[in-house]
Design goal:
With 447 residues, the chain is mainly beta. 4% of the residues lie in helices and 38% in strands. The chain contains 2 helices and 29 strands. The strands form 9 sheets. The protein has a 5-stranded mixed β-sheet.
Length: 447
C-alpha cells in the first residue's frame, strides 16, 4: 500500500503527457520567396535603406557581400543569400492574429530582424496582412505597416531616438505575436518581455512590462538590466525567452502570453520543463495577476505560437531546436556535414490545450496534438522542391511560429525563416516563408 501511495503521489507531482496524436492531412501549400524585400517608408532614416550592416564582427555597408549560413552547430550550410540587404527583408513570420482582416487576409508580423538586439539596429519592425492562395501556391503581401513611436510612449531610448518619425527597430523590441482587438494591435514581445499596444497604422499607444508576483519580470536584454548580471538572480527570463505566443481569448478581452522558454531559478538553471503563461486584461490595460503553466513534451525546448480556437481551447506550437529532414541526419561522429543535418527536426507539434482545465499546480491540460513531421499528402499538394524524396510531408523548420484555426476542420501553419540564417527544406538553400493548410478535424473536435 505504501508503494502504491508513493507512486500516486509521484504521478500527481509530475503530470504525465500521455495524450492522443491526431492525423494531419495537407490541404494546401503556398510560399513567399525567401528573398522578398521591401522599401522602408519615405520618411525613414537612410540607415534603414540598407539592413543587416551589423550582422558580422564589424560594420559592413557593401550590399550582398557577406554570405549567410545556418551556423556551425547546424553544419555551416550556405543559404545562397548574402548580407547586407538593399531594403528590409519580409522574413520571420512570427505569429498569426486570431481575427482576420475584413478581406480575409491574415495579420502576421516580422520579428526583430537578424536574431539579436546587437545585430538588428537597422532592421525595421513591421506587421503585415498576408493572403496565401492555396490554388496557385503563392502568397500576396497586401499591406505592411511599420511600427513607430512619434508620441514618445516607449519608456526608454530607442535606436531612432533623434528622428521625428521614430521608427522602431530590432534594437528596441523583438515582436513575436500579434492580436487585433477593437481596431487596435496588441503585440507580445521578447526583450522586455513587454506587451505593446498600437494603432492599425503602427503608432505605439502604450508599453506594458510583465509583472509576476508584484515584481517586474526581466531578461538580459530588458532595458535597465545592468551587466554583468547573474542569471536567476538579476533576471529570470532567458535570452530570446519572452513572449513567443500571445493569444486573445474570445469574449473576455484577455491576452494569454506564453513565454518561449522556461524561466530561470536561483542559480541560473531552468525552473522546470514548463513555460509560464500570464494573462493581461486589455480593458484595464493591466495584468490580472494570474499565472499558469504549459508542460513541454519530451524533446521540446520552446514554443512558437499560441491561439484560441474557441472560448477555452487553444493551439500551441511546440518545437525542438532541430532543423531539416531526419532522413538526412548526419552519422554519429561525422566531421563532413556538407550533405547532412547535424541537428535534424525531431519535435514539431501543434498541441491542443484546454484553459478551462487547470490542475492544482497551475498546469493547463494538454488534450492532444498533430505531428508536423508526419503529414499525409494523398492528393500530392506539396509544392515541387518542398517535399521529401519519400515518406510523409514534413514541416522541418527550426522555428515554426504561426498557427491559427481556419474553420471547423482546418488550421493554417507557417514558419519563421530567420533570413538568411536558416534552411531546413533543402541543404544549401535559404528557407522560404511557407504557409500550409492542414485538415485536422479530429484535433479540432477533441475535448
Amino acid at each position: 500500500m505504501r508503494l502504491i501511495l508513493a507512486a500516486l503521489a509521484a504521478s500527481a507531482a509530475c503530470p504525465a503527457l500521455a495524450e492522443d496524436t491526431f492525423p494531419a492531412k495537407l490541404a494546401g501549400h503556398a510560399f513567399l520567396p525567401a528573398h522578398t524585400l521591401i522599401a522602408p517608408p519615405a520618411d525613414a532614416p537612410r540607415d534603414l535603406w540598407i539592413s543587416g550592416k551589423f550582422t558580422g564582427k564589424t560594420r559592413n555597408e557593401v550590399p550582398m557581400s557577406a554570405p549567410g549560413d545556418v551556423g556551425k552547430a547546424y553544419g555551416s550550410h550556405p543559404t545562397g543569400l548574402s548580407l547586407p540587404f538593399i531594403g528590409q527583408p519580409v522574413q520571420g513570420m512570427s505569429g498569426f492574429a486570431m481575427n482576420r482582416a475584413e478581406d480575409g487576409s491574415w495579420y502576421t508580423l516580422t520579428d526583430n530582424g537578424f536574431g539579436s538586439k546587437i545585430n538588428s539596429p537597422d532592421a525595421a519592425l513591421f506587421f503585415h496582412r498576408m493572403a496565401p492562395d492555396f490554388t496557385t501556391g503563392t502568397v500576396e503581401r497586401k499591406e505592411t505597416v511599420f511600427l513607430r513611436d512619434p508620441d514618445h510612449k516607449v519608456p526608454f531610448r530607442i535606436a531612432n531616438e533623434g528622428t521625428e518619425s521614430r521608427y522602431l527597430t530590432g534594437a528596441d523590441f523583438d515582436p513575436e505575436s500579434i492580436q487585433i482587438l477593437n481596431g487596435e494591435v496588441w503585440i507580445g514581445e521578447e526583450f522586455g518581455p513587454f506587451i505593446l499596444r498600437a494603432t492599425l497604422d503602427g503608432r505605439i499607444l502604450s508599453v506594458h512590462q510583465t509583472m509576476m508576483d508584484g515584481a517586474a519580470l526581466t531578461g538580459p536584454d530588458t532595458p535597465g538590466t545592468v551587466h554583468p548580471a547573474v542569471p536567476g538572480k538579476d533576471f529570470r527570463v532567458q535570452r530570446s525567452g519572452g513572449y513567443e505566443g500571445m493569444a486573445l481569448q474570445p469574449e473576455t478581452g484577455l491576452l494569454w502570453g506564453m513565454l518561449e522558454k522556461p524561466l530561470l531559478a536561483e542559480g541560473g538553471e531552468k525552473e522546470g520543463d514548463f513555460l509560464r503563461v500570464f494573462t493581461f486584461d486589455t480593458a484595464r490595460a493591466d495584468w490580472t495577476g494570474d499565472s499558469y503553466r504549459f508542460r513541454l513534451a519530451e524533446g521540446a525546448t520552446a514554443i512558437g505560437d499560441l491561439n484560441f480556437i474557441d472560448t477555452t481551447r487553444a493551439l500551441v506550437i511546440e518545437r525542438d531546436n532541430g532543423e531539416g529532414d531526419a532522413a538526412l541526419a548526419c552519422a554519429e561522429g561525422a566531421t563532413d556535414m556538407a550533405a547532412c543535418y547535424p541537428q535534424p527536426a525531431r519535435v514539431k507539434n501543434i498541441v491542443l490545450v484546454d484553459t478551462a482545465s487547470i490542475d492544482a499546480e497551475g498546469y493547463i491540460r494538454r488534450i492532444g496534438h498533430v505531428n508536423l513531421l508526419d503529414i499525409q499528402d494523398p492528393d500530392g499538394l506539396a509544392l515541387d522542391g518542398m517535399k521529401p524524396a519519400e515518406g510523409p510531408f514534413t514541416f522541418p523548420f527550426f522555428t515554426v511560429e504561426d498557427v491559427a484555426r481556419v474553420d471547423d476542420t482546418h488550421i493554417i501553419v507557417a514558419n519563421d525563416n530567420n533570413l538568411p540564417f536558416s534552411g531546413g527544406r533543402q541543404i544549401g538553400t535559404a528557407a522560404n516563408n511557407e504557409f500550409i493548410l492542414l485538415s485536422v478535424p479530429e484535433l479540432l473536435a477533441a475535448k
